Amino acid sequence: MRTNRLGRSTVEVTELGFGGGPLGGLFEPLDDDTAAGALAAAWEHGIRYFDTAPHYGIGHSERRFGDFLRRMPRGEFTLSTKVGRILVPQDPAGRTDESFQVPATHRRVWDFSRDGVLRSVEDSLTRMGVDRVDVLFLHDTDVEDRFEAALREGWPALAELRSQGVVGAVGAGMRNTDLLTRFVRETDADVVMLAGRYTLLDQSALDGLLPACVERGVSVLAAAVFNSGLLAVDRPTEEARFDYAPVPPEVLRRAHRVADVCEAHGVPLPRAAMLFPLHHPAVAGVVLGMRSAEEVRRDVAAFEADVPAGLWDDLRGEGLLDERAPAPR
Predict the structure, then answer these.
(1) Nearest to 243 by CA among 284, 301, 193, 199
(2) Given the residues 49, 56, 198, 244, the one annotated as active site
(3) How far is CA 27 from the centre of its chain?
(4) Is the pLDDT assigned to residue 216 strictly greater than 90?
(5) Which of 2, 128, 154, 302 could crosslink 271 through cysteines, CB 3.0-4.6 Å?
(6) d(CA 202, CA 193)
(7) All domains of the chain in start order, with CATH
């Protein structure tokens, strides 16, 4: 599997990365054996970039990543996690976490201070049982007050860790393209992780973020390319989610129009959704959340298959792709 370097750093990622949200019990519970099988299948098929976060399953995802990756040669994979939330133990009292299907053993506390960043990194290393991570992201700074705290306090802490050689690359991950564009222009970040804003259904990152990344030499990792599952099947249904919420009727209609064009070219909708972001020169890789070995095998097969150039031309002709979206490289 091809690899690309992140910005001006020496860190490289495979073009297909493993996203850790589902391993934290996103949407549905997940047992340890199934999670381990998904990670093993990813490794078997050449995936060497693994991304997680404390937020995902209040530590479950990080623990499961560590259980698997500790057994692999450290120089052969790239590992990223995120900062901004501290996990504080609490009595679950029989409750399930509000965001993931796991017992509510911890609560999240927002903290982008220098001390908070350092504590978050130390906690993550302990949960994973590893001695280092390769990439750190400021996580979910989509709201203005959180963004200001992250930029003012969190960013200098990440830059310090990079200058000390503790991590190889640093950046931020969120959905808000305006704030992420500002982050790119006001820092010397190596990479940003963009969730759901450069996909077959939403190309708003072309307005400012992607041009800024090209100008500044910042790499983009495209996450949530299925927009929370809507594009993960050949024919989306009304029960599908879009950006973690029920799909609006107009978005569902647009998804079906995209699916019609894909079907005419004999291309499954998920395959087109995975490959589309990689056409942009700023995009270094696509990060997919996967929860089972079967899902990994299916996604890798789709990722490695060819897509006729005429598909993208027809999507543009139907007004479904922004004219500024680059053609396949």
Answers:
(1) 199
(2) 56
(3) 16
(4) yes
(5) 302
(6) 15
(7) 3-260+268-304 (3.20.20.100)
